[in-house]
Amino acid sequence: MKSFKLLLLILFASSISGHAQPERDEQCKAASSVPLPAEAVSVRPTEFPACEAYKSYAGIGRRVNYAAARSCAWKERAAQQAHLPQNSKVGTSWVIGGDLILVNLYANGLGVSRNLPLALHLACEENAGIAADAIGDLSKLAAATAPSAKRFDVCDSASTTFSMNFCGSYRSEITEERRKGAIRVLAARWTPEQRSAFANVETAEQRYVTTHNKELDQSGTIHTLKDLGSSEIMHNNFLLDLRRFERGDFPKNVEAAASEERMRRQFEANLTATRQPTTAADSGTAVTEDGITEAQAAWEQYRNAWLAFVAVRYPSVPAAAFRAYFAEERHKLLTAMRGQIYRG
To answer: Is the pTM of this model over 0.85?
Structure first.
């Protein structure tokens, strides 16, 4: 845990290098005298809180509750300022919490009176964290003659790899929560047997998406964003497929053998590409034969879970149509992933 905190501190320190420090100092000078509300000094946590302000703010796993988010965020801020150890059970809150959530709440007037000077004060006191990326945008917002119609979000101002990685992960949680809600609505009319079968599809889908990252080039500091972007596309397509099937728009192609053979050939071509030697000057991609093989095995489990579900949910549709559809989708992804494999 100490090494993780050290890494965060290094990344925090490096994140300010791209900013014009004199300009930031000027923007923060006036905000430094803005008084804090009483609740800011009434909390004295002895350990990093587990209330997770960002989840109450965004409605992740719970109802949106701005009052609860604000109360929790002040506790997180106090814990951060007291340099309390990170709570390993709520790792995201150590970064996406405290000042960041407070800035969003006060900048937008959510559950509290809108107070842009206070929001700027809080962003400035963070110095080198994610909220500090928003100092310039907050200053512009405060100087505007009319409030913006768009909700202010600190993560819109993320300008470093560190900020974008954490904000990407945070937003991915929000998107996943909405996806789950959409699936719950669809599943409300299913039988217990169908819901049980689909639970296996969801488990297999999560495993497949996670393992798919092994087909992505992991070199460079931006790889987390690439992982998140690819994962989001796959999760979204998963929901789109379900919605399509639920409205009766089923695959028409029943030539499963031909589709599966095309997919198999592309899979073999990707494996062959990973076996090519690298040059001394170029270590090549991080994609390996083992990684592609693992992803393919996870896809097969995913495909099989879908086939078991559709058999009980849409029994009148030929299984071959779904076999062909999922093979074609995998073929498209394998073709796209071939560009992630380079040697020499």
So the answer is: no
